[in-house]
Amino acid sequence: MPGLIKFRYKYQADSCVCGRITRTMQKLVSTVHAYRQLLDEVDAWFTTCLQVGGASLACRGGCSACCRALFDITLLDAWLLKAAFTRLAPGTQAQVLNRCQPRLSELRGLWPDLKNPYLLNAFPEEGWLSTPEEDQTPCPLLDENGYCLVYAERPLTCRLHGLPNIDISGEDFDGTACTLHAGNPLALPEQVLHWRFREVFTQEVDLFRGFTKELTGSSWPELDTFIPLALVADYNAVDWHNFKL
């Protein structure tokens, strides 16, 4: 299956074990497919908001004002991102990796023990859950025109940013909005803007737990990284079945 990691199980290649690995891979592929479907639903909500909002909303192709600084993404998002990255032309991959190297050096200065697969959860959360607002370093996956090179496989947070995330119950998961909008997104009809965010976020957590269970043998509540770290990581070199933070 293109883009999926090869498992490094230290077992003899007998038929029983091969069958177990095949079943695990099938479950993993199914979980990744289900997550992609969830991302498609998020995109559909966002697109509807843009269609209704028209010129009052600034989010359009080529606008990359929010694609700055570091923000954490889940290992599941990183998995899809890495798979899409490996399908880019070799020269493009090299350029992106060159843009990642300063970030890797910076983060290794903060956390000398940071190593492949470059997951953040072994380090204090206050060091990576929030980043300086003045950091305007562009995402390494932006091309010269401000377009994302792997737009179809971008993380969930990239798909949600720019509009308020208000549940149909009225619960505000993130009421902030991009300041570049000509109008106020909160003026959108409630039946358009308000969406089933609680249900979607619950599904995301469930899928992530299933993904890590199938990948590592244990269900992890959180495994996070940054986009530049996901791109330089070698997930094929990780013995996921024996993975520990």
Which terms would index this structure?
245 residues; mainly alpha; two-stranded antiparallel sheet
Provide structural commentary.
The strands form two sheets. A two-stranded antiparallel ribbon has the order 1-4. The protein is globular. The protein contains seven helices and four strands. It is mainly α. The chain has one domain. The chain has helices spanning 15-53, 75-85, 90-110, 156-160, 190-193, 197-216, 227-232; strands spanning 72-74, 165-166, 172-174, 224-226. Strand 2 (165-166) and strand 3 form a beta hairpin. The longest helix has 39 residues, at 15-53. Residues 6-19 have low confidence and may be disordered.
Q: Write out the strand line-up for the largest beta sheet, numbering strands in chain order.
A: 1-4
Structural class by helix and strand composition: mainly alpha
- What's the average pLDDT? 90
Kindly give the count of domains: 1
- The unreliable regions are 6-19
Describe the protein's topology.
Elements: H1 15-53, E1 72-74, H2 75-85, H3 90-110, H4 156-160, E2 165-166, E3 172-174, H5 190-193, H6 197-216, E4 224-226, H7 227-232
Antiparallel strand pairs: 1-4, 2-3
Helix pairs in contact: 1-6
Question: Concise description?
Answer:
With 245 residues, the chain is mainly α. The protein contains 7 helices and 4 strands; from the N terminus they run αβαααββααβα.
